[in-house]
Design brief:
alpha/beta; single chain; lipid metabolism; 45% helix; disordered N terminus; 14 helices; 2 domains; three-stranded parallel beta sheet
Length: 327
C-alpha cells in the first residue's frame, strides 16, 4: 500500500521501474539505475533505531519486495519486524535507542562505535539506496558521514532517503534548518501532508506517503464492523474474557514508552498513581503495553511482580491485540 501511491509499476520492467523511481522522487540517480540493473538486484541499506521505526521500515521492506521487478537485498539495523522481512541486523536496535541529552551522555562512546560500525558495513555492502527511518540524531549523522566517505573515495554514492520528516514545524526557525539537510539527504518520505510542500519550498525533495496509522486500519479491515471504513474497532469483550477481567472492573491502560530510559521513569510515576487509585477503585486492573524492545520487556517483567494492582501485559507487534486492549 505504502509505495503503490508513489510508484505504479505493475506494467514496468527492470529499467522502467528504476527510472520511474528516479523521476517521481526527483533524485538524479542515473548511475544508481545502471548499477542496479547491471548487478541484477537492488541493494538497500536500511536503518531504524526505534521500535516505531521498526514497524514503519518493515512495511516499507514488504512493499519494496512486492513492487520491485528486481530482487531486493537488505542490510542494516532494525528490530524484530524488519527481521521478518529478511534483515539480519548488524546489532540489536536497542543499542542506539537513546533519548535526551542526559540519557545520551553515558552511552556516547558506545553510540560512536555503533555509528562507525554501521558506516563500515554500508561501505562493504555497496548499496544502491540508503534509507534511514526517523531517529534523526543517529540517522543524520550516518547519512552525513556516509556522504563524506564516498566523496573522499571519489565514488558515486547511493541515493539517500529519510523516512519520517523531522518535526521542523515544532522548532523555532525549523523550516530554515531544512535547507541544511540537502547536503546529505536526497529525498524525504513524509507522513503528514503539509510537510511535502514545506520541504520542497526549502530545496529538499519530498513525497507525502501517508501516515502509518492508515496501514493499521488496512491490516485490521477484515474485522471492522463500523460503517466508517477508516475506524478501528477492537474486541474488548474478547480481551476481557481471555484475561479474566471481572465485570465492573476499572481498567486503566498504561503506555510507558519504547525506550528503557523513559519506561523506567514513567513506570515509577504509574506505580505511585496506582497506589493512590486502588483505595478508590477496589477492582482496579492495569493493562501495560510493552514495546518490542528486549531491555524494556525484561525491565517491565521484573517491575510488575511488585505491582500494587493486577497487571496484564500486552506484547508489542500485535495490532489486533493492541486495539482489543484499548477498546
Amino acid at each position: 500500500m505504502l509505495l503503490k501511491a508513489i510508484w505504479n509499476v505493475k506494467s514496468e520492467k527492470h529499467r522502467g521501474f528504476l527510472r520511474l523511481l528516479s523521476r517521481h522522487l526527483s533524485v538524479s540517480s542515473r548511475t544508481v539505475i545502471d548499477k542496479a540493473t547491471k548487478d541484477g538486484e537492488v541493494r538497500v541499506f536500511i536503518v531504524s533505531g526505534e521500535v516505531s521505526g521498526d514497524t514503519i521500515a518493515s512495511r516499507l521492506m514488504a512493499s519494496l519486495k512486492k513492487l520491485s521487478p528486481l530482487p531486493i537485498r537488505f542490510s542494516g539495523v532494525g528490530g524484530s519486524l524488519m527481521a521478518k522481512q529478511g534483515l539480519t541486523s548488524l546489532f540489536p536496535i536497542e543499542d542506539i535507542s537513546v533519548m535526551g541529552i542526559w540519557e545520551l551522555l553515558p552511552h556516547i562512546n558506545k553510540l560512536r562505535a555503533k555509528l562507525k560500525d554501521t558506516i563500515e558495513a554500508a561501505l562493504v555492502f555497496k548499496p544502491h539506496v540508503v534509507v534511514t527511518v526517523d531517529n534523526k540524531g543517529f540517522s543524520f549523522r550516518l547519512l552525513k558521514k556516509l556522504r563524506v566517505r564516498y566523496n573522499q573515495l571519489n565514488l558515486d554514492g547511493p541515493v539517500h532517503f529519510h523516512y519520517v520528516a523531522p518535526s521542523f514545524w515544532a522548532w523555532k526557525g525549523g523550516e530554515a534548518r531544512l535547507k541544511g539537510l540537502t547536503e546529505f539527504v536526497d529525498h524525504v518520505l513524509c507522513i503528514l501532508p503539509f510537510e511535502e510542500g514545506v520541504c520542497r519550498a526549502n530545496g529538499l525533495g519530498a513525497t507525502f506517503v501517508g501516515h502509518p496509522i492508515v496501514e493499521d486500519v488496512m491490516e485490521l479491515k477484515d474485522r471492522n464492523t463500523s460503517p466508517c471504513k477508516w475506524k478501528i474497532e477492537g474486541k474488548s469483550e474478547d480481551f476481557k474474557e481471555k484475561n479474566a477481567i471481572p465485570a465492573g472492573a476499572t481498567v486503566v491502560s498504561l503506555l510507558p514508552g519504547s525506550r528503557l530510559q523513559e519506561v523506567t521513569r514513567m513506570l515509577t510515576i504509574f506505580r505511585n498513581t496506582m497506589d493512590l487509585l486502588k483505595e478508590s477503585f477496589p477492582e482496579l486492573v492495569t493493562v501495560i503495553h510493552i514495546a518490542s524492545n528486549r531491555h524494556v520487556e525484561s525491565y517491565i517483567d521484573g517491575v510488575v511482580s511488585k505491582w500494587p494492582v493486577p497487571a496484564i501485559l500486552v506484547p508489542g507487534g500485535s495490532h489486533h491485540l493492541k486495539y482489543d486492549a484499548l477498546s
